[in-house]
Amino acid sequence: MNNHRLIPFIFCALLTSCNNETKNDSFKEATKSESEDEKRIAVFIKPKNKIINKNNLDVLKKYNNQYSFDFDMLKIKELRERIIQLVGDDNFKFMDNLTGSTPVEINNNRFSCWIYKAHDGCCNHSIIEIDLIKNILYVGVCKDLNYKLYSEDGSS
């Protein structure tokens, strides 16, 4: 039997066993920090200024069950202006670079769409929610698992 085929497997096993202690320590540390932050999943951001332009977002109703990239959701002027006012230019640019989405859902006059970076394992994404009756925009931004939630009325 040819023992040369086993060398890569043995080498990997040795590396894994040598690094086990380090991995366990970092896992314990990660678990500790996660449990400490368990109570505070996200940071709620209240708007710095009163939202000036509260144009009606009813125009979005026609996009129910469509993917956001099929109709360039973030290019719709009414929505774009309000998101920029709420989350700022940097967060908007981050959102505009996300490449995937779920279909838009409108249930009980509530618009909802999740946009994300494809093949990223959910570390970077954004959620847009709109109460179409009250005309209030809510945006969640997650960058590298750091969550920030924004709402036009300051509610969480």
Question: What is this entry, summarized?
Answer:
The protein is of the alpha+beta class and 156 residues long. The chain is 31% helix and 23% strand. It is built from three helices and seven strands, in the order αβααββββββ.
Report what the structure shows.
- This protein has 156 residues and is α+β, with helices and mostly antiparallel strands.
- It has 2 domains: 3-36, no CATH class; 43-151, no CATH class.
- Helix content is 31%, strand content 23%.
- It has helices at 7-36, 77-87, 89-96, and strands at 43-45, 100-101, 105-107, 110-116, 125-131, 136-143, 146-151.
- Strands 1, 2, 3, 4, 5, 6 and 7 form a 7-stranded mixed sheet that branches.
- Mean pLDDT is 76; it is low at 1-40.
The helix/strand class is alpha+beta
| Beta-strand content | 15-25%
- Helix tally? 3
Number of domain units: 2
- What is the CA-CA span between the terminal residues? 66 Å
Provide the fold topology.
Blueprint lengths: L6 H30 L6 E3 L31 H11 L1 H8 L3 E2 L3 E3 L2 E7 L8 E7 L4 E8 L2 E6 L5
Parallel strand pairs: 1-7
Antiparallel strand pairs: 2-4, 3-4, 4-5, 5-6, 6-7
Helix pairs in contact: 2-3
Provide key terms for this protein.
single chain; 156 residues; alpha+beta; 2 domains; globular; disordered N terminus
